[in-house]
């Protein structure tokens, strides 16, 4: 096995909304071209932690952090960090499709246009490439100028992934990407995630333990303590977390949901 490279390194990281501590003392490595799953009970801070990896939380409230989150060695919480560039490099897909009320084409092109002007032929190629990468081209090549809101739920979610891919991210954060989708659409998303693993580093939050075992290389188990502060209890290869966890809380959580 080739040596693992850390795309994101989290060091003793704590996160506050206003003065309320949400996440405490997390340290972990998110490895390049690997899929890392974050699991834990509902409301335990998994999504908050995920959004802290590209500072998306700062769009919601005043935040304070302690410790470091390093993206290829650079602390993303330094003042001089360009947030627009950071969020292009570490892109995010949310639990429910959040498409704009515009065409399929314009949704995918949206982030690319924010970066700068491109000749139409070049923009066409970027849009087509992203839709193909999201395995949607055959379904949508004749619907590029129709409203994206007319698509099925599964197609909309894959189009959100295409939009994220269009800006050429290095890391893709996925928060419950199959939430509310039917089994066929969920499997299409899973197949898409598998196809992207050689090109991207992927972090996925999910409650579906079977999905975790099918997709992920590494797993982090998060748990809220008695003060409702999120801590990472255990991190390791997915095989180890699911077959030989070190902490009884990890074992209880995983075994109750996998059996």
How does the SSE layout of this entry go?
Layout: E1 6-17, E2 20-31, E3 35-39, H1 46-52, E4 63-71, E5 74-75, H2 83-89, E6 90-93, H3 104-115, H4 120-133, H5 137-140, H6 153-166, E7 171-175, H7 183-196, E8 201-205, H8 209-215, E9 218-224, E10 230-237, H9 238-243, H10 248-258
Parallel strand pairs: 3-8, 3-9, 6-7, 7-8
Antiparallel strand pairs: 1-2, 1-4, 4-5, 9-10
Helix pairs in contact: 3-4, 3-6, 4-6, 6-7
Structure summary:
The chain is of the alpha/beta class. 37% of the residues lie in helices and 27% in strands. The chain starts with 5 loop residues before the first strand and ends with a helix.
What this model shows, in words?
GO terms for molecular function: ATP binding. Residues 8-254 form the ABC transporter domain. InterPro entries: AAA+_ATPase, ABC_transporter-like_ATP-bd, ABC_transporter-like_CS, P-loop_NTPase, PstB-like. It comes from Nostoc punctiforme FACHB-252. This is Phosphate ABC transporter ATP-binding protein. The structure is a single chain. The chain is of the alpha/beta class and 259 residues long. It has one domain (6-258): 3-Layer(aba) Sandwich (Rossmann fold). Helix content is 37%, strand content 27%. It is built from ten helices and ten strands. The strands form two sheets. It has a six-stranded mixed sheet with strand order 6-7-8-3-9-10, with helices on both faces. It has a four-stranded antiparallel sheet with strand order 2-1-4-5, with helices on one face. Helix 3 (104-115) crosses helix 4 (120-133), helix 3 packs parallel to helix 6 and helix 6 (153-166) runs parallel beside helix 7 (183-196). It is globular, with a radius of gyration of 18 Å. The mean pLDDT is 92.
